[in-house]
Amino acid sequence: MNYIKLIVLFVTLLFFRCSEKPTDLGGGASGNGNAIISGKVLKSNGTPAINANILLVPVSIDPTASNGNPTVISAKTDGAGIYSINTPLSGNWNAFANDGLGNVAFNDSLALTGDSTVLPPLLLKSKGKLQIVFKTQPQHDPRLIDVIFWGTNRVLVPVSRDGLMIVDDLAEGTYPVRIKLSTEYAVIDTHFTIRAGETSGKDTITLPYLSIPVVTGLKAEYDTLNGKVYISWNGIDTTKITGYNIYRSSVDSNSSNVLINTVPVVKTTFVDSFSVFGSTYLYRIKAIGKNGDLCPIYSASASVNAVNRLMVTTVIELRTFNTKNDTASINDIVGF
Fold first, then answer.
1. Is the dihedral of CA 133, 56, 112, 42 positive or negative?
2. What phi, psi does 120 have (nearest 5°)?
3. Tens digit of pLDDT for each residue in 44-101?
4. With contact defined as beta carbons under 8 Å apart, do 175 and 150 qualify?
5. Element counts in the chain: helices (H) and strands (E)
6. Who is most buried in 58, 243, 283, 327, counting CB within 10 A?
7. Rounded to an integer, what distance in angstroms lies between the CA atom of residue 163 and that of residue 135?
8. How far is CA 202 from CA 5, 129, 165, 238, 269, in A?
9. Which of 129-138, 148-157, 171-180 has the lowest mean pLDDT?
């Protein structure tokens, strides 16, 4: 008889044990029931942020995948600033919060195991700003650059025609970023660090060009005294090239580009002694690759007008020569 009573008591306790409601990790106020993941969003003064929007995004996600619709989990905070998510998640995730009033938050690389988890609080702060200028080869359009913020729902960041990128709604934190243009350029994987209420970056990033670069910064000046043309340009990394070829064409005779150096030029200056007074010339340069291949693109041209030697018109103080006992003329002094 006692044995039967013990069995009944055990079954009764087991029934009540299994009838207990699961713990509401959302705090009960949201009414979401059995929360798997929960957390809190706070204002900068430490008080709860009500109706803040939450996004959970996998750390390794490429936001350009899935036709521009990366997988994200969304939620909203309740009257206590608490959010609850009933979907079991595993892996590393980024958490973002936005109160719709210009304040944002970002917690990165949160490890989830599929079990019930309370995440660290998200502290709202003012938005930060990122400003970068991208440089490409002159023949390429920087607007085609893809700037990918990994682990976010930010699909692509637009770049202007002059290579300027401005992002002014980022939460404080460090973001892994991939920068790519085409197969002619190496991919750049880097990190951008954002500070709340500040403009970060203000840097220039030159995309690594894998082919022979185009020469830039070409200048040509005509010396009216000796009739020579002095040419200069910006140097290119010598690990990529062996030298330069300089080409001249005549605007007056509509001649084509003529190679004027007999051997590759290894410096970034050149003197052209050939000119006909009154003629206008255009100069262009091509870099020579390690295998002897030429860059397929000429540099931008620089023009000069080979005018007659300048006549000196500046008034020079008259000098008296003891041997002539008269005033020397301006031609005597300058040698004409």
1. positive
2. -60, 150
3. 999 999 999 999 999 988 777 655 455 789 999 999 999 999 988 899 999 999 999 9
4. yes
5. 3, 24
6. 283
7. 6
8. 79, 10, 10, 28, 32
9. 148-157
User: How many other CB atoms are there within 10 angstroms of residue 93's CB atom?
Assistant: 24
**C-alpha–C-alpha distance, residues 190 and 182, integer Å:** 17
| Structure tokens, 244 | 């330069």
Please give the angle made by the CA atoms of 106, 109 and 110, to the nearest 5 degrees. Answer: 90
Q: How many CA atoms lie within 13 A of 89 on its CB side?
A: 27
Q: How would you classify the pairing of strands 117-118 and 37-42?
A: parallel
State how far the Cα of 214 lies from the Cα of 92, in Å rounded to an integer.
43
- Write out the two tokens for 154: 């930010």
Token pair, residue 56, equals 């959970």
Rounded CA-CA distance 202/39 in Å is 35
Q: Which residue in the block uniquely carries the two structure tokens 């070409």? A: 218
Instruction: Quote the pTM value.
Output: 0.69
SS3 letters for 57-112? EECCCCCCHHHHCCCCEEEECCCCCEEEECCCCEEEEEEEEECCCCEEEEEEEEEE
pLDDT class of 34 with cuts at 50, 70, 90: low
